[in-house]
Amino acid sequence: MTGLLPAAGIPGLLDGTVAPGVYHWHPPVSVPRTARHAAEAGWRPAVLNLHGATDKASFLARCATDLELPDWFGHNWDALADCLTDLSWWGETRGYLLLVEGWGAFRTAAPEAAGIAADIFADSVHHWAGGTTPMAVLLAADS
Question: Which segments constitute the Barstar (barnase inhibitor) domain (predicted)?
């Protein structure tokens, strides 16, 4: 599911009343505060800061650093997909929440890379929807 995060927002996502998906999001509170709220609810949050990322290479470099991807991450699209569908390196949790900052500017600077990244996010969310541990991706509006 892609679209705007429903009115129930983060609380609804964390309590299961909002289906996991890839959502465009206008944060009413800071991203770090949202990450803390998710962690308090038993979810594993991660913040991907794309401010200044302008191409595939800088996007993948940010993913490696910000998401603390494992050493076997190969800095390519397939490796990113593998990492996001095998989150054993993130540990056990009630759910996975990826908060993406700077999405709009990245999408403008690198539309093809952003499209591929969005597809990988959607495929990863779909992968996790088949089990007991959901994953959601929030693409934060640029401030």
Answer: 45-139
